[in-house]
């Protein structure tokens, strides 16, 4: 029994020893480290393969070499400085410790003993690595420094070429700042070393330093002071881009107070360094310490207090005369830096317009745009297209020849929508659904009989509809697998014949991609063979950014058809915030999602990038042949094979280039202020503002335009301001593309338009004082023209015109009726139409059903000289203002003119409202004739129809 009891007793669980636990932890850490290292190496290899697939290994190795060079330069410099000083500290150490040596120092030497030399080297290397790693992020500054170019323009204060400030100064300043911080750390390291070696004895009341130790520290402090003196010298040049006064750059207070103070600080820094150096012979530290205190005092008084006092006591009471020279410098620099120094100015005047003149200029009327290229129109395109696995996320405006003439066309790409595909398996997301399908196009100036876009398939000839690369695509896809890809409509099957992506022709490559994507299926899938290709970085903007990381990219890529294939065009900008005396660009008027945000005061649209939607090939066209861009020249020197000359761009692409809206917004905002000379600039006499944006939704209980417009001041000049006044935060007119008909020209040009109004601090002035047009046609691409109206009698501006349209009785009534029926009313783009000697304004009247959420063009509104016309078509609206006008303008295709006069038994709510609308019109006509009886009958009948429509909607 005893034996049985003993045999059945539980065996005690063996506990892992402390050594075993430590070994397990170490093994786990090593395993995690190996996995992380493996993924990093895999990512590096995948990155190389991607650059190889787009034939851009020159960028891969060029960027890598720049980073390695900086890492080696700065890391080597820090390690050398640290090692040399640690060796000196060791040589200067006493041979024996004093009696009052701190116990910690003794234990330190007991522990490390003969390993101290290795410890010094290890500390120097570790710190060197930590100081070198951040410098790799400055590779662009390094490339600009070593490839710097001349602008051929000298700054007005120091006489240096602008290229010095743009390309050399940033890197030199970084080196000096890095060296200062490195010396501070080395001084701390040296002091700690002297403490541990006995050169500094920590004893009360104060530490005891050997003379040799003090000499070592004095030399380092001298170097630190000299480096700071160099920093002060560079600060003089840095002030050309500082914000210290009325404008950016050097101003009166900076020039006459801060610059002398900076020079004084530089001299004090040199003197202080010299005094530290004299301690090697005299061992007297008091003069150097006093000089350091004086240095700090001068920095406070001369660098901050004195310039502020000059600004308040000298400049502010006489700001106009004191700042005039510096404002002139700022104006000249800003104009050139933002590309608004060559704006052509033309004077125009508009007068009366007759029906015959309108009929004679029908070509200008045919080019109006009824559809706004925004998200709601994209929804319209997407819904009408009806595809379940592709989506139209954006609609762009381009121009193509339609029916024998070049006109505006809306173009939407059917991009792959992985959120909507039915097959959500790994194969469905990566092997089957791999691409979008072609384009949806419609003339921008036409609607069909259902008030929808007049879609056409004969505008562009897309023979290669598969879109493997587009702006919204993320993740990866694999083509040429044993699984059939989804085919576009009208095509039986898809066999990818391009050379995009990386061939997965080895297990090693598949393993690298699997580690990089953390996706085991890339190894385990039997559908992948040696001919399969992995397509990654499918977002076209990201593709361009990867091969040209120094470019700022526009936020709106647009598709163009070249030889039957869709090609995405992306505007590339060279930007900088280092242009001397240039004012930072005002980006407050950029739309959300813009790529041109951030802080910059120099910009050029020097690159047109294209990405082939089928094979992913990237081409960067250098567009600076007319006006060389030194910033682009720097990058052409750094990467000689990256850019293609503009002369090699095919004409089929050049014909579809657009002047970028984002750049135009920035330039028009700047031009409204910087077109003035220095005297008027300060007071903003004759200044402009970008016109206020008209309302996009109808106003409840609209009031007359006189209530919203200040007509007491008809002069263009505003009152003199005592200081700089800025534009209000009110929404500004959104520029738009149009087929612009210049005065005296028989041909239309594809251009961008934006109007200006006289500046007033509270936006009281709303007249039209000028407008700017940016030409996009190949012969005059990039030409900026400002059309200026005579100041004596300015016509209404877009805000006033929009208010007049909104306040019109018929427009207001239609909006109220549709709103009460559950629909949403919205106004389209307000477009200005110079016709003959007069000026017309037009905007579409959109209706959106709350149930369907789809936009239609219900009416067109026209305004001329205060008169407003509403019609179901553009021609009909024109006939309201110009009775008898009957010239077709082609805005409605397949128009159904039949309108029932009495309600049918199965009439829809919309039909009832249309009949009510006609009755209200008849009532208005009767009222004008004084026929009160007919007026009452029509009003009663109309209200009954509205009631019936509401009853039907409410069930």
Summarize the structure.
By secondary structure, the protein is of the alpha+beta class.
Overview of the molecule:
The protein is α+β, with helices and mostly antiparallel strands and 955 residues long. It has 6 domains: 67-209, no CATH class; 238-337, no CATH class; 367-538, no CATH class; 541-658, no CATH class; 682-712 and 725-880, no CATH class; 909-953. It is built from 27 helices and 29 strands. Strands 3, 20, 21, 22, 23 and 24 form a 6-stranded mixed sheet that branches. Helix 6 (139-146) packs across helix 7 (162-197), helix 9 runs antiparallel to helix 10 and helix 26 (909-928) runs antiparallel to helix 27 (932-953). The protein is globular and about 120 Å long. It starts with a helix and ends with a helix.
Jot down its keywords.
alpha+beta; 29 strands; 6-stranded mixed beta sheet; globular; 27 helices; 43% helix; 955 residues; single chain
């Amino acid at each position: 029994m005893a034996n049985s009891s003993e045999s059945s007793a539980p065996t005690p669980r063996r506990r892992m020893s402390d050594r075993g636990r430590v070994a397990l932890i170490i093994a786990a850490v090593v395993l995690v480290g190996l996995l992380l290292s493996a993924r990093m190496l895999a990512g590096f290899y995948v990155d190389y393969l991607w650059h190889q697939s787009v034939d851009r290994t020159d960028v891969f190795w060029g960027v890598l070499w720049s980073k390695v060079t900086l890492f080696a330069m700065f890391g080597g410099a820090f390690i050398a400085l640290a090692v040399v000083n640690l060796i000196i500290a060791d040589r200067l150490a006493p041979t024996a410790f004093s009696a009052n040596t701190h116990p910690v120092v003794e234990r330190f030497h007991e522990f490390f003993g003969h390993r101290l030399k290795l410890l010094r080297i290890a500390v120097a290397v570790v710190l060197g690595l930590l100081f070198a790693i951040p410098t790799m992020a400055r590779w662009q500054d390094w490339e600009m420094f070593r490839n710097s170019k001349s602008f051929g323009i000298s700054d007005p204060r120091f006489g240096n070429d602008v290229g010095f400030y743009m390309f050399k100064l940033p890197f030199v300043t970084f080196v000096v700042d890095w060296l200062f911080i490195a010396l501070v750390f080395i001084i701390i390291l040296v002091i700690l070393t002297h403490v541990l070696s006995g050169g500094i004895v920590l004893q009360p009341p104060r530490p005891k330093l050997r003379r040799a130790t003090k000499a070592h520290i004095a030399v380092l402090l001298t170097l630190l002071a000299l480096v700071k003196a160099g920093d002060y010298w560079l600060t003089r040049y840095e002030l050309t881009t500082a914000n210290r006064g009325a404008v950016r750059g050097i101003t009166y207070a900076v020039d006459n107070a801060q610059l002398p103070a900076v020079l004084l600080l530089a001299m004090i820094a040199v003197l202080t360094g010299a005094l530290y150096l004299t301690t090697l012979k005299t061992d007297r530290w008091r003069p150097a310490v006093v000089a350091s205190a004086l240095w700090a005092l001068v920095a406070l008084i001369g660098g901050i207090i004195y310039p502020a006092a000059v600004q308040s006591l000298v400049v502010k009471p006489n700001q106009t005369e004191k700042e005039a020279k510096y404002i002139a410098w700022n104006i000249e620099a800003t104009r050139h830096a933002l590309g608004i120094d060559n704006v052509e100015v033309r004077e125009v005047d508009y007068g009366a317009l007759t029906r015959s003149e309108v009929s004679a200029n029908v070509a200008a009327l045919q080019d109006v745009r009824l559809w706004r290229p925004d998200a709601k129109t994209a929804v319209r395109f997407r819904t009408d297209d009806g595809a379940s696995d592709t989506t139209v996320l954006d609609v762009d405006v381009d121009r193509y020849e339609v029916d024998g003439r070049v006109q505006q066309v809306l173009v939407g790409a059917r991009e792959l929508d992985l959120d909507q595909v039915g097959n959500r398996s790994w194969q469905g997301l990566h092997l089957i659904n791999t691409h979008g399908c072609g384009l949806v196009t419609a003339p921008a100036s036409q609607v069909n009989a259902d008030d929808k876009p007049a879609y056409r398939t004969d505008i562009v000839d897309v023979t290669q509809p598969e879109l493997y690369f587009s702006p919204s695509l993320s993740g990866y896809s694999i083509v040429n697998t044993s699984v059939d890809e989804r085919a576009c409509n009208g095509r039986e099957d898809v066999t990818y014949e391009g050379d995009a992506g990386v061939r997965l022709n080895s297990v090693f490559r598949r393993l690298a991609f699997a580690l990089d994507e953390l996706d085991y299926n890339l190894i385990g899938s039997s559908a992948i063979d040696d001919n399969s290709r992995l397509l990654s970085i499918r977002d076209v903007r990201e593709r361009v950014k990867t091969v040209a990381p120094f470019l700022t990219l526009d936020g709106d890529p647009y598709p163009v058809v070249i030889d039957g294939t869709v090609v995405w065009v992306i505007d590339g900008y060279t930007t900088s915030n280092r242009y001397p005396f240039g004012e930072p660009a005002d980006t407050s008027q950029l739309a959300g999602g813009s790529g041109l945000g951030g802080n910059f005061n120099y910009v050029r649209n020097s690159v047109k990038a294209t990405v082939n939607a089928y094979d992913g090939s990237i081409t960067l066209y250098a567009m600076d042949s007319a006006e060389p861009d030194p910033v682009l020249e720097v990058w052409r020197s750094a990467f000689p094979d990256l850019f293609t000359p503009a002369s090699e761009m095919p004409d089929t692409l050049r014909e579809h280039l657009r002047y970028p809206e984002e750049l135009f917004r920035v330039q028009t905002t700047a031009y409204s202020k910087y077109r003035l000379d220095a005297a008027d600039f300060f007071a903003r006499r004759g200044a402009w503002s970008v016109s206020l944006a008209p309302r996009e939704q109808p106003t409840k209980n609209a009031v007359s335009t006189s209530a919203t417009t200040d007509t007491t001041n008809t002069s263009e000049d505003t009152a003199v301001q005592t200081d700089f006044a800025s534009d209000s935060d009110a929404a500004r007119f959104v520029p738009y593309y149009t087929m612009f008909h210049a005065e005296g020209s028989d041909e239309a040009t594809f251009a961008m338009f934006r109007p200006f109004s006289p500046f007033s601090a509270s936006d009281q002035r709303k007249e039209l004082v000028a407008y700017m047009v940016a030409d996009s046609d190949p012969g005059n691409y990039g030409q900026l023209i400002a059309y200026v109206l005579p100041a004596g009698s300015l016509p209404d501006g877009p805000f006033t015109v929009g208010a007049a349209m909104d306040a019109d009785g018929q427009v207001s009534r239609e909006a109220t009726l549709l709103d009460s029926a559950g629909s949403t009313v919205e106004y389209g783009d307000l477009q200005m139409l110079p016709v003959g000697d007069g000026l017309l304004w037009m905007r579409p009247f959109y209706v959106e059903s709350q149930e369907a959420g789809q936009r239609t063009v219900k009416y067109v509104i026209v305004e001329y000289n205060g008169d407003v016309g509403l019609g179901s078509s553009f021609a009909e609206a024109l006939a309201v203002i110009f009775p008898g006008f009957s010239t077709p303008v082609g805005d409605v295709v397949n128009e159904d003119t039949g309108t029932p006069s009495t309600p049918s038994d199965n009439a829809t709510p919309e039909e009832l409202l249309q009949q009510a609308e006609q009755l209200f019109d008849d009532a208005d006509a009767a009222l004008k004739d004084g026929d009160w009886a007919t007026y009452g009958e029509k009003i009663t009948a109309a209200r009954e129809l509205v009631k019936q429509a509401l009853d039907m909607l409410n069930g």
